[in-house]
Amino acid sequence: MIEGPYFTLTVLGALGTGLMAGVFCAFSTFVMRGLGSLPPTKAVAAMNAINRAAPRPAFMIVFVGSAVLCAVLAVVTFVVWPEGATVELLVGSGLYLIGAFGVTVTANVPRNAALLKLEPGSEEANAYWRTYLREWTVWNHVRMVASAGATLSYVLALT
């Protein structure tokens, strides 16, 4: 069983990835569905407002902090190589770093940036909205599952 500061890092990793799984789950299950029920003009304006509000300290501390914790846990796991928890720790770190953080950077953020460039109500924004909604939500499902999987892996490492 892992102990001391390593145990604390794993608990914090589980909490951070679990919180992010909850955020992604909320978006996948009702936020995007609610935005999808709005006329494109209002939906684009609302999503752009969300995208401007998201990169605030409270969210970024959990989102980026979880990535840092996962990276630290992966490095420490390679150095310490704990008995009985190595696979779970590496899987948890990989799931979050690639499936949540990596997908955010490569799939969701570029779509957000493209949407932010469009004027709500414009023909271009209205046409792009349905594609954005579908693609962004698919990638968000990936982030949700990866974050939940990371949380589960870290919890299993603690047992």
Automatic annotation (TrEMBL):
The chain crosses the membrane at residues 6-32, 58-81, 87-109. Keywords: Membrane, Transmembrane, Transmembrane helix. This is DUF1772 domain-containing protein. Pfam families: Anthrone_oxy (PF08592).
